[in-house]
Amino acid sequence: MKIEKFNLLQFDSLESTNKYCELLDLSEVEEFTVVWALEQTAGIGQRGNRWESEPDANLTVSIILKPTFLRADDTFRVTQVVALGISDLLMELLPQHNIHIKWPNDILVDGHKICGTLIASTLQGDHIATAICGIGLNVNQTLFPDWVPNPTSIALLSGQRHVLRPLLDQLITCIGQRYQQLRDGNRTAQDEQYLQRLYNYKKSARYQYHGQTIDATIQGVDTFGRLLLTTADGQSLCCQMKEIALLPAD
Ligand code: BTN
Question: pTM for this one?
């Protein structure tokens, strides 16, 4: 889908763009409506965390999708499309760098987190009705609070500041193209590219798994978006997000 124009709702400040979308009557909202706030006063991250973003420096947006062509058990496809679209954009902007998708929601550049996503979908019957795709992309911020784990930004990596609005257009184009690829039924290509970009795919790493430290190797992701791993002692694991977390390298 070439998104030439999209419906943009732009705000100087919101608590959270995802929260704003949740309050809308989405049946009245066009697909690819984008809610953009220059500042979020209570941005929401994964696992109950806050999403901290310097005002006017980064992209904090939520894109409203209506992937009604997807079945309810295909919600991971939306996560995948968004991650592929964001990583496409970063591969264009930062061609000298290593771009990875850290399962399930983060985008890393050279091992540092540049972007997080928070996606909430609703169902109608056995299909998806709407998906609010929240994206926090670090663009011009160069200093981060100490508690933010392992951050980076486009400006830190490229040495250049970027104007946010054209970058938002590029981001929506990249996600639109991936969304169209999915709509066209090209799932195999997306699965392959997702694995090619998956951080630590087929590499041994240390994880926190149900309170224990384990060494394991990612073998893939199943159709429900669960991470598949094998442990150093040969056990197979199939994990939801709350069950496993990558530990920082020593
Ligand atoms: C993460 O923890 O990595 C997910 C971060 C998601 C942040 C984005 S910013 C725009 C949207 N609105 C929110 O409140 N959160 C998401």
Answer: 0.96
pLDDT in tens, 179-236: 999 999 999 999 999 999 999 999 999 999 999 999 999 999 999 999 999 999 999 9
Length of the chain: 250
Neighbour tally for 143: CB within 10 Å: 9
Name 53's Cβ contacts closer than 8 Å, sequence gap at least 6. Answer: 39, 40, 43, 60, 136, 138, 141
Q: Which of 10, 15, 18 to mutate to test the pocket of ligand 1 (most atoms within 8 A of CB)?
A: 18
Q: Could you give the 3-state DSSP secondary structure of residue 75? A: helix
Q: Which residues pair with 151 in a beta bridge?
A: 113
Q: Is the CB of 55 under 6 A from ligand 1?
A: no
43 lines ligand 1 (CB under 6 A): yes
pLDDT tens digits, residue range 41-74? 999 999 889 999 999 999 999 999 999 999 999 9
All structural domains of the chain, each given as residue ranges with its CATH number in brackets, are: 8-197 (3.30.930.10), 204-246 (2.30.30)
Check residue 4 and give its pLDDT. 65
**Of 118, 117, 114, 97, nearest in space to 151 by CA:** 114
Q: Is the CB of 67 under 6 A from ligand 1?
A: no
Give 77-136 pLDDT, tens digit per residue.
Answer: 999 999 999 999 999 999 999 999 999 889 999 999 999 999 999 999 999 999 999 999
Q: For a substitution probing ligand 1, which of 15, 118, 150, 153 has the most ligand atoms within 8 Å of its CB?
A: 118
